[in-house]
Design goal:
Mean pLDDT: 87
Helix content: 10-25%
Strand order of the largest sheet: 1-4-3-2
Number of strands: 4
Largest sheet: 4 strands, antiparallel
Structural class: alpha+beta
Distance between the termini: 29 Å
Radius of gyration: 16 Å
Low-confidence stretches: none
Length: 87
């Protein structure tokens, strides 16, 4: 994606460019996990949260939780080093 002169200050360049480039990155993969997540996490998580699983950082794509069993199915997308937010 290129900048177009005065369009470099556009809403797309400010807010969406990095995300769109990340979606079409050929190194990105979707990983599926199953886990029993604590209720405190399930109540507060956001889809832009990052999770670390065995030294790999992922962004949440979706979480489906069975209220009967408490088991969650997570769909996570791996992140590149420049996308990881340190906390």
């Amino acid at each position: 994606l290129t900048d177009f002169g005065s369009a470099s200050n556009s809403l797309f360049n400010k807010f969406y460019k990095k995300y769109i480039k990340s979606i079409f990155d050929p190194t990105k993969r979707i990983f599926r996990f199953e886990a029993f997540l604590p209720p405190s996490f399930l109540i507060k998580y956001k889809l832009n949260d990052q999770l670390k699983v065995q030294d790999v950082v992922y962004r949440i794509n979706s979480i489906t939780t069975s209220l009967l069993t408490g088991k969650s199915k997570l769909e996570l997308i791996n992140l590149n080093a420049d996308e990881i937010i340190e906390w």
